[in-house]
Amino acid sequence: MSFNDIVKYITQQFVTYVDQPSEKRKELRQERKSTRSPMHYQMFGMVPLALSIFFKNSRSKRNK
């Protein structure tokens, strides 16, 4: 792929984005935000989830 092709593709994507109504852009942005996983999962993977499950289980065992 040449540099001109890349510039052409980026320009096309930008123009289609700008041509959309602002409500549609806001809706798409909200949709992407809602489907994104929490930041601590993105940063550290499954470790926070595993630790939270472990500590919940250990608390429930102590309370019994």
Number of helices: 4
Report the order of strands and helices.
HHHH
Give the radius of gyration: 22 Å
Q: Assign a percent range to the helix content.
A: over 70%
Low-confidence stretches: none
Task: Give an overview in words.
- This protein has 64 residues and is mainly alpha-helical.
- Helices cover 84% and strands 0% of the residues.
- The chain has four helices and no strands.
- It has helices at 3-19, 22-35, 39-44, 47-63.
Any chance you could write out the topology, listing elements then pairs?
Layout: H1 3-19, H2 22-35, H3 39-44, H4 47-63
In short:
By secondary structure, the protein is an all-alpha fold. The chain is built from four helices and no strands.
Main attributes of the structure:
single chain, mainly alpha, 84% helix, elongated
